[in-house]
Structure formats: C-alpha cells, structure tokens
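Troubleshooting: if your tokenizer reports a length mismatch, compare against these two reference records.
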Amino acid sequence: MNKSRKRWFGGGLTLALAASLLAGCGGNSDNNSASGSNSPSAPAASGSAAAKPFEGKSINLVTANHPWAEAIKPLIPDFEAATGMKVNVESFFEDQLTQKLTVQFTAGSETPDVFMFRPLQEGKLFFKNGWLHPLDEYVNKDPNYDFADISKSAVGTATVDGKIAGIPIITEQEILYYRKDLLQAAGIEVPKTIDELVVAAKKLHDPSKGMYGFVARGQRSPLVTQVSSFLYGEGADFLKDDKATINTPEAVKAFTTYGTLLKDYGPPGVLNMSWPQAFGIFGQGKVAFLTDANSLYKNATDPAKSQVADKVGFAPFPAGSAGSKPYNITSWGLAVNAKSADKEAAWEFIKWATSKEIVLKTQEKGNPGARASVWDNPEGTTGFPPELVAVIKESVKGGVDHDRPTVINVGEARDAVGEIVQKIMTGEKNIQPVADKANEALQAIIDQDKNK
C-alpha cells in the first residue's frame, strides 16, 4: 500500500476505500474529461456506502479560465469515483468570475460551494461581507494533509483578520530577469543589491543603439505590485497597524529608486506599460533588466514570444538596505462559500485539490504551487527552468505575503500609491508633498474599512 494515497481521506475509512482510491489513480488522468464521465482508471463501485463517504452528494465548483483549472479538470473524475461525489464545474474570465460571485453571494446563494478567488484583490471584501467560510477548523484535522507543508507567506496572503479564508493554489514571487549575454560582454556580475542594479542598468543603457537599462510596470495601478518588493527591501510597507506608511523616508526612497530607474533607464512609453508591454520590449531584446512576477517567465523564454529566449537569466530580487524581501503571495486560492449546504463535502474537494499528490500533478503542468515538498521533488519542477526553480526556492524563504495595500478598496489604494511613482517618473523633484498627500488618501481608505 502506498501510504501517500491515504492522504485523500480522513481517518477511520476502510482499507477497501484506500485500495479503491489507489486503483483510481493508476491510469493517465490527462485523458479524462471534467464532465463526470467514467474514467478508464476510475475504481469500480463496491456497492458499499462506507467505501464512498460522499455517495450521492454533489458540489458546484467555479473556476477562473486559468491554467490551474485546465490542469485540475481532467483529474476530477478520479476524485468523483473515489468519493462518490459529483463535482459540477463552471469557468469564467477573471472579471466575469468576480462579478458572478459578487451577485450570487449578495443574493445569499448556496452555490457555488467551492470557488477560485484572488485573496489580495477581493479576499478582504468577500471575508468582511461574510461570504467566505473560515477553514481553520479543517486544515489540521487530517495529519496526512500536512498543512505545515504549505508556504507560510502563501497562507498569510489568504488569511484575513487572523482567519484562514482560503487555501493557496497558485503562488508567485517578484524576481529579476536579465540578459546573460549583455552582462557577460560587459563584465557585469548579476546584481545582488538594488544599488548594484542601478549601476548595472546605467552602464548597459544606450538609447542610441536601441538598448535600455531597465524596464518594469509603469502604469499607475499595475506598478504598485512590483514596486512593493523595493518597498519591503528598504524596511517599509504600505501600512502598519492600520496606519498608512507610504510617506516615510524608507518608502519615499523605495519609490524614488523605482521611479528613477524607469525615468532614467527605461524605454520610451514606459509610463503606460503594464506587464505585457514590459515583457514585450524585453523579449524584443531591447532591455537589459526586468523585474516582475516569476509566473510570467514564459513571456521571456518562449521563442514564439521572445527573440532572446535563450539569453534570459533569472535571479532573486536584489536586496535593499533591509535585505532581499520580494513578495511571495497567493495569486489564486480555493475558498468555501459561507452559505454552502455541505461544507464538509466542499472541504473534502479542497483537501484533495491541494494535497501533495494533486499539487504535484498541477505543478508538473507549470502551475507554481505552495507546497515545499513539491518544490523539493524533482518531478514537481519539470515544468520550470532549473535556474528559475532555484530562484523560486530562495525567494520563498524571505518573502512578504502581500504585494499591494491590504484593504477592501484595493483599486483606490493602488491609485494613491501609483501616483507617487508616476510623479517621480515625470520629473517631480520635491516628492515628499506628493507622498504626504497620497498617504492621507490611503489613510482615508483604511479608515473606511473600519466602518464596513
């Protein structure tokens, strides 16, 4: 008996169930569909209610149109065969997903039972509205689930007011992308500090030859997530103890560094760039350094998207005066509807979908999960360049669990922060008054949260 198979279930189930489950995992699940049709590898019905603890029950799962969802759907028939549970799946584009969930939860709907959500974008709003069922009572029930194996930073992202609002399924960290060939030709070491990055970007910046030293997101709202790692590296943050802190000397230094890099060494039009444009010009071979999320690496290494695919290097985010502190966040998690009629069944699905065995399968498809054991498993890293794997594992060690202000009105908060950086990019010399005004705006947003 492979003991790891038992992790699908809690204690007290019969050996017959474990054997049935083992049979259900024996085939190639990639050939299955998520429609609930019989899988060639699905276990035969035993006729015993004890062998299928959720026989006759069904849950509704709503996902985003995301690679993780495409990886999990072919595996669902095995879960259904082993548990007797029916999983009905619907998928939507991100904005449609948020809108659908908001409408249904506002109406008090019992469905969906389980859903994908973005903890840093809508997690606090959903939780404050009572739409998310805390999962604290479930995560340590089954020791084989090994909740401690999940990255603490990733769990922190999905925690609201001290309660576990969801379980991480997709993580990401900010890293440094660089051109190996350019650094080698110029005799430049890979920057380990932000100061070294500034010096290297300046040295490689040569607009007369169509080469720029640095690129990153410059649009007002999108830039906030990427400037966050600069902020943490200087020992600053967006807020502390419900007080806005984006006008401190450390914060202003971080914003100034990021904004100046883009102003002095960035390509034309950087003020209007989000990640697609930043990766696009990097992929054209016109930029030496790029900082952004590791989850977007294929935009730099896929020959179909990048002219320098074989020349791209990866490195941990450079250290500021407080060290290297990149964000290490949960970009997508799974949550349970607080109105679900069967929370035990909903949790059983989440426990399975975020188990070591299933995270291994989804991560093999290129979906960066949150389990340390899977990152330590060679099979779990086959979907990523070896150099990137080493950087990810290093980045997780000192990562920060958020990449934006943790407030309900995330959009307004991001605009307030982004205003500071954009003023620097457009040449504003006296940035402190701008930071003070933005800090007041962020504080007002924080105060509004207390009244909701």
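Reference record two:
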Amino acid sequence: MSLPKALESQVDSFVLKLKTRQIVGSYEVAKETAMILRQAVSTTRWFNVDLLIEFISNLGARLVAAQPKELAVGNIVRRVLKIIREVARGELSQANEEQTRNTEEYSEEDDVEEELSSEETNIKVNNTLAEQSFLSQSSMFNLLSDGPVVKNSDEIKNTYNLKPLIIQEINEEIIADLESVYKGIADQATDFIHANEVIMTIGKSRTVEEFLIRAAHKRRFQVLVAETSPTYQGHEMACKLAAAGIDTTVISDSAIFAAMPRVNKVVLGSHAVLANGGLVAVTGSHLIAAAAKHHSTPVLVCTALYKLSPLFAYDSDTFNVTVSPHNVLHYQEGLITDKVSVSNPYYDYVKPELVSLFIHNLGSAPPTYVYRLINDNYDQEDTTL
C-alpha cells in the first residue's frame, strides 16, 4: 500500500522535524504521531487486518528511524498496533458467537430441505480447492492484485466494519488519554505532598509543574529547584512555581548533595521509562537521584503511560542525545577548545534502584511493576518494529 499524497506530505514534514529536532518533548511527539497514524488508518485502502498491521508497522518503523531517541514515537505506534489487534479479536469473537448461535438455531429447525448428493458435494469441494490452489500459485494474479482474495461480500463488509471501530479506539484510548494525562497525574498530588515539606526537583517539566501547583492548592511547602546548567531550565521552572504562590528557591547543581539532608522528597519528570524501570530524564537527574539514595530520601517520578517503553538501555548512552557544547565552552576560546574534548549530554539514565515510585495518570507503581504496565499497553509481537 502507498500513502495518499496529503498524508505522505505530512509524514515527510514530521520526519524532517524529528531529524532536525524542531519538535522536542514526548507529549508533542506522541500527539503528532497519533494524529498521523489515525489518518493512515482512515485514508488508506486495506483489505484485512494483517495488511493494516504490516502497513502501520512499516510506517512506524519509518518514523522511529527518523529519531530513535524519541521513544514516544515507537510507544504510540505499538499502542495503535495493539488496538488494531484487540478490535480484530473482538470482531472475530463476536462473529464466532453469531455463527454458533445460527448453527444451534438451524439444528433446531424441523424443516427438511433437499440436500446435494455425496458425489455432487465432492465435485464442488474439489473444484473449490482447485480454484484456491490456482489463485495462490499464480504469480501473475498475485502480482496484479491489490490485496488478498475475498470470496464474498460478507467478508468485505466485516473487514471494512473494523475501520470506524479502530479509529474510535484510537480517539478514545490514545488521543483523549494524551489530552487528560496532566490532570490525571496532578489529581494525585495531595496524596504524596504533605504540609511543611521540602521538595527538590530539577529542570523544567510540565508534568511536575502541574503536580506541584495542584498540591499547593491545599498544602504549604517549599521547593528547591536545581538550575540545570547549562540549559538553565530550572530558572524557568522556578518562575512558574513562584508565580503560583509556591515558596521556591533556585540552587546550583553543585549544591544538590549539600541541600539533600533538608529535603523530604525528590520529584522528577521523565523523558521515557524503560522496561526495567530505568528512567531517561534531563541531565542532572542521575546526580539528584544518587544523592537522594545516599540520604534515604524517596524519589517520585511523574510520568505518563505513553512514556513507558518496552526497550532496555544496555548503557547510559543508549538513548542519550549530545547537543552543541557551545553553552559549556564557547567557540571563541580557541586556545582551550583545541586541547580538550567537550561533551554536552542532554539526558541522564537513572537506574531503577534509584527510583522509589512512579506516579502515572492512572495511579502509581514501583519500578518492579513497570513490566506489568508495559504488558497491559503493548503487544509482545510489537516489541521490535
């Protein structure tokens, strides 16, 4: 199958944005991926579920290859594939129940109809088998056909009935879920943030921001925000929290360990959560989690379910991104830059041993429970796209 021109243009534009990192952030990436896949299901011609699954898998692999570090792309593709399989299984189960019911009703009828003789039945069966064999073996027929052979109009009708069901599930299970994900996490804030506590966070995360602001509606507490050099995202985060009336203090990254004994909880955002319960988060997250582990301070991670990935990180650089070192060491300092090698990683990998609890939009779970959440959201056949 080929993409319609309008969809092909949209896919090319999205791929370009991913390659050049014009679109950054799990939420925006996930939302646009879901829109493209919904349009792909809606506008393309497909004849059965297997053909659709193959098409979505190929399209998803193309999007993932554009920016492998944005794990949200692959996560949304896997969610869509699971929805397609579940809708197909439900339709098949309903069809089997109908067939069983019709068979039982037919067996109870008292009307006796004239049946074909055994010779005529055998001849028809042999002719049907010969026709199927010829169609499956004819290379010219397979070459010219747009899809698998459909025997009757009922099969066509049942196949195309799946399209609106799949689109409806994508709208309800993925796109609507993305729009309410921040509210689902923020609603749990008062269960974890208590009065007069000192909370430490790092970087700028919309999920953590709304989580803390919601808690501030009923609790009074203090927040320490690490500045997150060299991007200094912590400054922007501190401004947002202070504007919401929260007592906020900005600290340098080097002061994290020294300030940790005063801290009651650490609240982190996430870029992705891996299958082993590990975390990919903004640079400095490993430092703050390790310091919290040393001082026995609980580490809470606010993350959405669409950030859960069935992939593993075999080392700390597997899903990392290295950006321009200009903010660390200016290019104008040529005498120094010629003699040193400067690396500026954008993310940190945080081991599951350093995380106490994940707070997601449907509840909370420890790192050891992440594999169950992944099994609930993805099909094992789609682990590798």
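Descriptive notes for reference record two:
- The chain has two domains: 1-107+115-179, 181-382.
- The domain at 1-107+115-179 is CATH 1.20.120 (Four Helix Bundle (Hemerythrin (Met), subunit A)).
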